[in-house]
Specification:
The chain is mostly helical. Helices cover 77% and strands 0% of the residues.
């Protein structure tokens, strides 16, 4: 008898607000706010005081302390606290073996958090900016050869940790190979800083001298490679 009234798509205020809030650039803005808030919190809390004051006495030593430090390490890397500082603190607080375990666990945890934030909140917006030749080349390298590319970036001490995390998140690289490459590639440099931290009270010991020598040599190598790359790009 009566034709059914066709349903109209919802165009109310709430729907429009939801679309705006879930848009790529709104999510990217949220990512920026989260990272800025984390960085400000770290500046106020000053986690570097651990190097001077040490671990709280009630948590001194033991598996629980190592686990808590690993979690704190991961959160600090998300907030842009330099990893060398955290690695030195891990060695000074827990020694070589436990300190290395805590530092590597925190490295993988922090990288995973950053990757998740970048992938969920930033990928859709930032991929629209991949117009430059070098940006497209980097994105293609990470997307097609993610594991070996990330392994090389982690082994190369001149690449900022956070920058590599978010570049991988914006690319189409999978999370499992990203985490595995991060864990494996971070071992040499992390171990050197942890050993230096654990032997800091004996600056003439062979272990401390070997660790510092490795850090200096890899730093010089990174600077040389970066200079070569810059010189090559300038000549093209």
């Amino acid at each position: 008898m009566f034709d059914p009234v066709p349903s109209r798509p919802a165009t109310g205020f709430a729907v429009r607000c939801t679309r705006v809030l879930l848009s790529p650039w709104s999510r990217f803005s949220l990512l920026v706010v989260v990272l800025l808030a984390a960085a400000v919190a770290m500046l106020l809390l000053e986690p570097q005081r651990l190097l001077a004051t040490g671990w709280p006495a009630r948590l001194d030593g033991g598996v629980v302390a190592v686990l808590l430090f690993g979690v704190a390490y991961g959160v600090c890397t998300v907030a842009f606290v330099p990893r060398p500082l955290l690695n030195l603190a891990a060695g000074a607080l827990f020694g070589t073996q436990s300190g290395l375990a805590a530092a590597l666990a925190g490295t993988v945890l922090g990288a995973g958090i950053s990757f998740g934030l970048g992938r969920v909140l930033g990928q859709d917006a930032l991929r629209t900016l991949l117009r430059g030749r070098w940006l497209k080349a980097a994105d293609g390298q990470l997307s097609r050869h993610g594991f070996r590319s990330m392994l090389a970036l982690r082994l190369f001490p001149g690449v900022p940790f956070a920058a590599a995390n978010y570049c991988a998140a914006v690319s189409r690289m999978g999370c499992p190979p990203f985490l595995v490459a991060t864990g494996l590639g971070s071992i040499p440099n992390t171990a050197a800083y942890v050993v230096a931290g654990s032997e800091a009270t004996s600056p003439t010991s062979p272990a401390f001298l070997a660790a510092m020598g490795f850090i200096v040599l890899t730093g010089i190598g990174a600077a040389f490679v970066a200079w070569r790359k810059r010189h090559r790009l300038a000549s093209e």
